[in-house]
Design a protein that fits this description.
The chain is about 60% helix and about 10% strand. With about 130 residues, the protein is an alpha+beta fold.
């Protein structure tokens, strides 16, 4: 049976730097859009509060409802920005170790959901890996 040659190593780390800058770009873009969404949500909530104080409850509730998707979207984008920034930092800081011919390269990444317990507990994503 024919065997495949091992994958070519990138001694210069070009691919790793491209991945790092790409993830960094995603982080910056997600952060920028998240801030814009958050500012829009705050604007709508301020209008909601001023209309509520002026006893225009019907239109105030509509504005509050319009603010929710922007607020939740901004929270999600802040999470994406944080995750992308962590991946970018990983790629910038990661220096692969030298492998011998007998020792195959092993790469593992695991993502597991985790749920907290008790009052105020939330959900998280636990990442672990071996490079």
């Amino acid at each position: 049976p024919a065997t495949l040659p091992p994958p070519a190593r990138d001694p210069s780390g070009h691919a790793r730097r491209v991945a790092a800058w790409s993830a960094g770009g995603v982080a910056v873009a997600a952060l920028g859009v998240g801030v814009a969404f958050n500012l829009e949500a705050r604007s709508k909530m301020n209008s909601c509060a001023s209309q509520w104080n002026a006893t225009m409850m019907g239109s105030a509730l509509d504005l509050c409802d319009q603010a929710k998707p922007f607020a939740y979207g901004s929270y999600a984008l802040f999470g994406v920005a944080g995750a992308a920034a962590a991946v970018s930092a990983l790629f910038f800081l990661w220096q692969p170790s030298a492998q011998t011919a007998e020792e195959p390269a092993v790469t593992e990444v695991s993502l597991l959901p985790a749920l907290g317990s008790g009052a105020g507990a939330g959900a998280s994503l636990v990442a672990s890996g071996r490079f």
